[in-house]
Structure formats: structure tokens, C-alpha cells
Amino acid sequence: MKGITIILLIILAMTSNPIMAQQKIVQPLARGTKVTQTAGRDQLGDFAPEFARLNDDILFGEVCSRNDLLSLRDRSLVTITSLISQGITDNSLTYHLQEAKENGITRTEIAEILTHVSFYAGWPKAWAAFRLVKEVWNDDITGDDAKAEFARSMIFPIGEPNVAYAQYFIGNSYLAQISDSQVPFANVTFEPGCRNNWHIHKADKGGGQMLIGVAGRGWYQEEGKPAIEILPGTVIHIPANVKHWHGAAKDSWFAHLAFSVPGENTENIWLEPVTDEEYDEL
């Protein structure tokens, strides 16, 4: 029993070991997909042959090949979540992110996965993982204009033109709904110089909004107070019933996540535009 326990611990430890970031072959199998891994023997065959065997034949050859019980896509999801939760952001995570992409996890899904994981594993761990995620999924974005270049600088999608609220913006903005359950939130992207009108998140109790900078540089300002610069990672807590606006800097694209805070009798009241004079003072 003790020997079995030791073997299981070794197998679990190997999920964070960079030796797995080597050749992997998948072959059709009666019950699903046979995974053939050679990383263990390629790197440790002479030095630690038993460890290499456990890595190649047991972890990959048997456990990962049981995709009739758990798909390769779901196994990727479990693996990257486990690694990020441990704060592992070396080449082993890069390898498993590449596998996750190959196994069907999309750019939008990986952004939502890391956002969800951040609430349980920790915000800094998610930020560290996003750096690698952006590199793995960057080739999903085509084009060489300023918008495409900005899109490649962040993991969250830019989304579609924000036509429903265009009347309340100066300049062009884009909206991507990231989550519509548990904690609903969206990614809002502003072209350089774009900003929304002064507005108020009214509520009898609770309410308000939270912004988290994602990419680029922007501004947030409450009426009668100096503007606050928003950079990636900046968190802005907007109280209910406070007049304010937010948007991009003149010379930078900008994106932030927008979270609506639950409350009683909430309502968004749009007011006058932020004038060029007010904006130029920044």
C-alpha cells in the first residue's frame, strides 16, 4: 500500500515537471485516443529509467489515454488549473497550454478559465499565467493594423463594435461579454481618445461598478476630483450614485473589465458628454 502511495505521488508530481514538454503522439484506439509520450526516456532514460517509464507509460500511456472516461480537452483543463494553482509558470505550463489549445480550448474560454481560477488560486498567479496564455493564443488574431496589434497585447477578446451604447461614447468602443453567469462581466475596449459620457450607477442599496485595467492606458474621473490613470492591473471601485466617466488616453488603446455590483433598484443614468476641454486638461 505504501509503495502504491509513493507511485501516485510521483505521478502527481510529474504534472508540474518540465520533462513532459517533449514529443507526444496520439493514435486512434478502440476506446478513444492512445497517447504516446517519449519525454521521460529522451531526457531521463539513462539517469532515472523508472521515473521515465512512469512518466511515459503510466501518466501518458495509461492515465491520459483513458479519454473514454475523461476527454483530452477536460484533462487539459484539469492540468492547467492545477499548475496555475501551484504558481507554476515555467515551460511545463507553456507545454500544457499548447496542449489545451490543440485539444480545443479557445482563446475566449482560456480567458474565462483563468479569470475563474483567479478567485480560488489567487490574483497574482492568474496574472503570471496570462503572460504565457497570451503568447500561446496570439496567432489566433490576424491583421497588422493598430487594433489587431492591441488585441494581441491582451488575452480577453476585443469583441464587436459597441453599437448599442455608441450614442453615449465619443469615439469607437468595442464590447465582449466574458461571463454571463455567477459573476457577469464584460471587456470594454476604447480606441485612442475614446471615452464614455458622464454617468451614474444609481441604486437604493449596494450597486456601483468595478473596473480592472486589462491593457493599454486609460482614465477614470469622478466629478470634482482629479482623474486617475488606469493601467493593466489597476482596480477602480465606483460607488453607487457618483457621477463619473472613463475611457482611453489620447495616445493609447485601452481595455478594462467591467463588473456591475448587485444592488436594489439599480439603474444606469447617462448624462452629458465629456467635453474636449475637460478631456484635454488631462
Describe the protein's architecture and organization.
With 282 residues, the chain is of the alpha+beta class. Helices cover 36% and strands 27% of the residues. The protein has nine helices and 17 strands. The chain has helices spanning 2-14, 39-44, 49-64, 72-85, 91-102, 107-121, 123-137, 146-151, 276-280; strands at residues 24-29, 32-37, 160-161, 169-170, 173-179, 185-190, 195-196, 199-202, 205-206, 209-216, 218-222, 228-230, 235-238, 244-248, 254-260, 263-264, 267-270. It has a six-stranded antiparallel beta sheet with strand order 3-5-6-15-10-13, with helices on one face. A hairpin with a 5-residue loop joins strand 11 and strand 12 (228-230). The longest helix has 16 residues, at 49-64. The termini are far apart. Mean pLDDT is 85; it is low at 1-22 and 27-31.
